[in-house]
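Quick start: load a record and inspect it. Here is UDP-N-acetylglucosamine 2-epimerase:
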Amino acid sequence: HKFLIVAGARPNFMKIAPIIRELQRGSYPLEYQLVHTGQHYDKEMSDVFFEELEIPPPDYHLDVGSGSHAEQTAKVMVRFEEICMKDRPDLVMVVGDVNSTLACSIVAKKLGIKVAHVEAGLRSRDMTMPEEVNRIVTDAISDYFFVTEKSGIDNLLAEGKPNGAIFFVGHVMIDNLFHQVEKLQRLPENSFETADFKRRHPSYGVVTLHRPSNVDDPKTLAGIIEALAEVSSELPLIFPIHPRTQANIRKFGLEIPESIVTTKPLSYMEFLNLFKDARLVLTDSGGIQEETTALGIPCITLRENTERPITVEEGTNILVGSDPVRIVAEARKALKGLAATGRKPELWDGKASARILATLADVLNREGTYSS
Ligand code: UD1
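Running the structure step on this input writes:
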């Protein structure tokens, strides 16, 4: 069977990497081609991830770039449709919840091509979040659902999905995390860009921020930066800045105080080497909530809700929203050693990709494709 794997934005790359590694290692009756939509295009948002995560160059690059949601989604759809019509794959595999995920699943489904969604079933129930819309629409039309945590099964069943199409397999992003942690152990500490920062600050916190709800409103963003400034008087902070956040800081005339060290977006290995030794992570990312849980690092999430509740129930994650007072209070608690400890969720064991591919080979053999 022939299938297309789709990736578009930074958080997709660490999810497709282990699947492709497993395809190259295993003997699955599956042939794949890789499509990069080009939703993220900066070297540090895309190319460095392909290099470090050992992802082969894409077979197709759609080169869509930035734009409004409609513009970006539409461009991916038009260009992806051409490829699907030419290639007639048996299946399209999409991962995560970015605009590229949504765009490609719609195109495939309307051409009668089966869709497998990796990281299906997650729900924040916050419809102001673009990713929540992407998740709901993608799952509404997918054929096979690969689920990272049990809440995903409950959500999909509640939405009427058949039990037999839902597969609880664990998390491909955690497969990748463990693979990279192992690689990291062979690299000398001084080969990292942040080596100097780490040497000067034996105890530090790491910040990431990019969600529209936190960075698109001047008052909210200013409040968060104020809170971070206060935290940084007790714990040195380092903040790799996403392009969207960087642009807004400039636009709103805000300033990051000198007590917070800022950097450009970091590569996967650079970021991993930084947060794995952090005392505390403050973030609004989805994936980082999970990676900190997998490594047992305290995480303060600057959101009111999460589509990944296992990180709060079993892991090290705490939701604090964007209220400066709560951010500072939770950071202080963590500094006193009162942060959540947590355990590793079920099936986050580095073998999710193998489970997914074995399942896919099996269902495609059994059920065939629409066209066959
Ligand atoms: C996207 C995903 C989000 C994910 C995030 C991680 C959607 C709806 N959102 O959000 O789920 O967590 O990626 O980064 O798909 N830009 C650059 N260079 C790039 C890419 C973007 O400068 O390589 C700038 C552009 O000004 C662009 C803005 O960042 O307009 C936002 O990019 P976009 O892809 O629209 O969404 P993200 O905020 O990155």
